[in-house]
Amino acid sequence: MASASFTLVFFSLLVIPFAVVQIAMAGDPDIISDFLIPPNVTTFDGSFFTFTGMRALVGAQPPSALKVSKVSAAEFPALIGQSVSYAVLQFPAGTTNPPHVHPRSAELLFLADGSLQVGFVDTTNKLFTQTLQAGDMFIFPKGLVHFQYNADAQNTALAISAFGSASAGTVSLPTTLFATSIDDNILALAFKTDVATIQALKAGLAPKI
Length: 209
Prior knowledge:
The chain is about 20% helix and about 25% strand. The chain is an alpha+beta fold. Strands 1-2-9-4-7 form a 5-stranded antiparallel sheet, with no helix packed on it.
């Protein structure tokens, strides 16, 4: 019996590190073919690998609020299994992309025009910030809270972000905390404030009718 217990413990010690490594590497699953074709695709040629949705941005007027145009597996099925996606971020003067997280990928941001204040917070709660100029790149590590802010009161900014996942996911902290059904009392205790303040924050995020 003792020998059997020792064998089980020894086997567990061998398996656990491999499991931890697999969790740490978790992202898009590897595929065993060149690419994946969704079942609903009937025409399969070069057009399947072409995304034209960004043409609408060329020559268009700048938006009046932050606009994020995503090219993920949801918009471009050819990305499924390819572990890559993009987003174009258009910042009017004085606008911000609020603190958020991409749970399945790091984000590599290229600033094409304007300037941006960017930053992220690591798991020791240390803040890393930088002011970017056109032509700069910045990496937001996977799963960490980060933000972008166009502090220029006169000029717009344009950024392009690349992700190492076809579906990086986005968890917006303001929306997740104050635009869902988390109890007001829980939030008040967590932020060491009162329920009235929490309700005021929720009201500010409520859709305008």
